[in-house]
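Why predict the complex rather than its parts? Because the way molecules touch one another can change local conformation, and only a joint prediction can capture that. The input here totals 1400 residues.
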Amino acid sequence: MEAVPYLALASAVAALGLAYFFFADVKKASPGNERMVFLMTEIQNGAKAFLTQEYTWVGAFGVVMAVLIAAVIAPLAAVAYILGAFLSALAGYVGMTVATMANARTTEAAKDGPGKALPIAFRGGAVMGFSVAGLALGGLMIVYVLFVLVMKVDDAFEVVTAYGLGASTIALFSRVGGGIYTKAADVGADLVGKVEAGIPEDDPRNPATIADNVGDNVGDVAGMGADLFESYAGSIIAPISLVAFALALTAEEATATTNISLLMFPVGIAFVGMLASIVGSFLVKGGASTDSKALSKALHMGTNVAMGITVIATIGIAMWLFGSNEDFDQPIGLAISVIGGLIVGWALGKTAEYYTSDHFGPVKKIAEQTNTGPATTILGGISAGMVSVAASVVLIVVGIGIAFYGGEMAFDNIGALDGGIYGIAVAAIGMLATTGVVVSVDAYGPIADNAGGIAEMAELDPSVREVTDALDSLGNTTAAVAKGFAVGSAALTALALFKSFEFAVAKASAGEVVLDLDIGNVDVFVGLFLGAMLPFLFAALTIDAVGRAAQAMIVEVRRQFAEIPGLREGKPGVNPDSARCVKISTDASLKEMIIPGALAVIVPLVVGFVDIDALGGLLAGSLVTGFALAIFMANAGGAWDNAKKYIEAGAHGGKGSDNHKAAVVGDTVGDPFKDTSGPAMNILLKVMTIVSLVFASAFV
Amino acid sequence: MEAVPYLALASAVAALGLAYFFFADVKKASPGNERMVFLMTEIQNGAKAFLTQEYTWVGAFGVVMAVLIAAVIAPLAAVAYILGAFLSALAGYVGMTVATMANARTTEAAKDGPGKALPIAFRGGAVMGFSVAGLALGGLMIVYVLFVLVMKVDDAFEVVTAYGLGASTIALFSRVGGGIYTKAADVGADLVGKVEAGIPEDDPRNPATIADNVGDNVGDVAGMGADLFESYAGSIIAPISLVAFALALTAEEATATTNISLLMFPVGIAFVGMLASIVGSFLVKGGASTDSKALSKALHMGTNVAMGITVIATIGIAMWLFGSNEDFDQPIGLAISVIGGLIVGWALGKTAEYYTSDHFGPVKKIAEQTNTGPATTILGGISAGMVSVAASVVLIVVGIGIAFYGGEMAFDNIGALDGGIYGIAVAAIGMLATTGVVVSVDAYGPIADNAGGIAEMAELDPSVREVTDALDSLGNTTAAVAKGFAVGSAALTALALFKSFEFAVAKASAGEVVLDLDIGNVDVFVGLFLGAMLPFLFAALTIDAVGRAAQAMIVEVRRQFAEIPGLREGKPGVNPDSARCVKISTDASLKEMIIPGALAVIVPLVVGFVDIDALGGLLAGSLVTGFALAIFMANAGGAWDNAKKYIEAGAHGGKGSDNHKAAVVGDTVGDPFKDTSGPAMNILLKVMTIVSLVFASAFV
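Output of the joint prediction:
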């Protein structure tokens, strides 16, 4: 049974090998003519410059944190923290570099139809997918094997948890910084380009077009990748730390077979999920048709197969680890938890799709509400987003119920650990076991989007744009499933980490009761109030940040149109200074990233040192409110976006109509909702919880 | 000391006498010419028709609830429930009737300048103010004296609590129904009148104008009055029930002198606050100037004096009831709680004013954001509203801290009751002791607004409109203080009621531990998730309700313009069918009121019978999230409203500019935020808590 971490480590290495294979595959494809290579290089350089600068800034923050951790917790924890942060940054850098190589190659391949182009875009994204999954799992297993199994250091599981905190730090800043960048560039490019200068999207004359394309990469590729790195690592760490901290409270039981099985089970699921992802990734092949159903089927084949394999293999792993249990209620119960989590995650994704896709009622209704202008469009989206909160919370509650039931079925209590809580923790890893292939599909989206942009800017034949458009529109719906898993696992992981926090406090205080989390305790209630407020503050800060960064961009674009002669008229040989736009957007968004990012780390530390009961309330309050607000913002934003696209496709008067203008207002409001504040909220919750968990012993 | 309830009863009777005096005073003023009387009568009839129909529907719901209470709790509780509901409805009916008499009389008096008009509008509102305060306190004291002191019935305090539930029921439906009506009429009148037909606001040709004026009365007068009736009664009931339920857990202590003082103290504050309000109400006198500062000073004189008296008298009451305490830490501590509450309530009002008044940065910034169109306007308002949540939550936390500190200073524990919790409960009554005069000022606003509408519709001299405009603009800022008290007391009262709920459960289960409210308990966490989701669902339902009701109105106005010849052209003798608009708006909003209203009552009942731990989590989750969401919606809505008015006053291009158009979009989005969903949210929280408290024994 002790072999499981080594197996998982081997699977992580295999994933990295696969990433290299896909990289080589992408690299050997042609990037097209000189103009395309130029555009690709500009995007790539911009994206790299952003990441380098972002990592420099975050690195400084990370050093401070590492010193603090070394001083307050343990030097080895600081090592794990740095490793988690470094590997997440590395995954982001490698993945994004390849993604920015794949865009022009996808455009070039699109000349031969989608059958050629789809695999290149997918494999470009798969480098990100398998870098994220491989590095996250690999690094975690190294920490686990080294510190827990080999060195057997004291408080080894605090060290393991610090790895997760390192990943969270990068995820938070990447989501916030990338989210601000991508929307500032988008809004800036649109407002001056389309509205003021009257030139179409992705037009080469617009100095912000390159920045807009860079934004897709730093936000939707690097930001998303760091998010999933953190979620994936966190979902494995949560059940492990839960078991470890609970057993530490009743030390004598820690070596029983069942307990080792409990530690190994989440790692085992990650192992089989990784193998399943590798298998699935080879099944994505494009056909000749640009029909959206056929393309969608091709792209989703990998994910669906990987999930199917994971479900079956989970049962196998459960039988292997818990098969000595006589009436099989242990393996059956835990399999119920994991598979239940997977199904609920899927259902959450479908709910997001229902509320944000123009195939269903809600978006159609918003499109109709454009009849009475922008105000009713805004109210319609707000209302739809809020209703989607209700549906999603009900699903999460059902998921918690199933996972809890399965866990309770497996065992009642082992020491301080309740079986139901363990069930909840492993349900999250059920959702994220196939991260490798899920992130691949997710990173495919911005590659296809960029490919379209390059086709437009390089003024290629419209037939090429047709193919890239088909690939791009596919990317918009694929994100829904990944989103469902990310959101659902965030709630479950945070809940499990919260419970670990309770155990960690109990352990650090040597069994003394120092934590009173009864809601009737006024300190806890004050914490709940503060916790419920933080997501609102965080949302306000990030929305304002996008506004200010976009403003900086607008000023620069206006300046270029005014000062560069012949630019607006498209005189041959006159090119905009795209690099300057990229630089301005980079500087503005990184400056804006600091306050909301730091808030997430500093607030729990301050509250924790002042009053640990209040910290408990704060974590719970921000988890439930932040979850609701995140779903509201993501789905309202998605719904407005697709209502606009629905109208652009010809409904309610089509492009240029008053309805379209109203829909554009909705879309612009939704931009920071869905791409900046909403996605960053999930990480905010986890960062706060994991900071509290790592520093629990210091608070006591 | 036993005399306190009788004194409070006497003060309530005095308040009702004052209300009659003001009524007679208003009645003897002239309502103006035939046209003005006609308009006044139309508004009055419309408002009465709405209230009658609303009360009929709510009455049916109330009967079901009363039967349920009689069957599950106690028949006398049902009696108290009906009394609470009846008196709240009565206060609403009487107050609104007089308010709709005062509008034309204010217009007529405005011919002689603001010195004449201001007192009439204020005294019209004061009938509402003192009806609300007098009936709420009087009814509560009758229940208290009769069931607790005279009949000494078993579980007398459950009966007292049921009085509060009756008031909550009316408040919820009045706020929701009235809020939907007023915004549906407003949006309907604006969209067809101003936008489609191109006729100005309050134009007599617009069939929806009367309905719009009716809306001000049913929403801002009757709805607000029922809200404050409930808040006021609730803030007295919360500390009483807290003490009573806590003492019931340790029966032997219930007769100790200190404990009786604890029961009497909140009633005593209500008594002195009522007297102070009566004194204050006589100090509102108008001068000759229409200068906004002078008018504001005149109007606020009553409130300020009343509060000053209350502060001093609170110290007196505390000394009287707790003066036997040797080192005076009891009277000093409790006075700190009450006065601290009052100051924080005031500060909450100022915060709301800061974020919503055009004298300060946030609204000016939103007005500036209209430069880049409606989308940035919307984002600006959302962000300002969210930041105001942070400021308000910090204030509430400070308020809880001060009140808790004062209570702890007074005493540690008496039986199960913690001194700090008691301090929090009495802080809420500190905020609401001067309800009489606060509601008077609040109800003044819609009267002045209606007076302006009548001046316009009766085509009086522009100088009259100038005076009524000055009075009206004053009304917009006065609401802020009342809002601060209402919001702050809602949070504190709900917190105290929550604690009472815990005691009630403990008592009903005869000391057995049946309630585990530790956040680490998964049931509680599930409850927190569900609780955080409910305010979002409630907001979505009410926003959609406004949309649908407005649509019904729009269809009717369009029909009248199309089918009544000469209406649009303003042919003499051609009048719109206003009554039909009123009827349609009434039917539509009452239909829409049912689901959100019923939700608030049914959800806690269902969850409570299924899992009482989850109910505890649900109440806490909805309290903290609902509080945040309510403030966000109220302040974002207020900010947009005043950004629009700021532009209309000439900034950024003034009326008709693109900036103005963008501001109108913001205002329209904000309408249901600030007048429907936001204000109803506070009651939602309290209704759920008080339902749980009343039914606590049944859940066990």
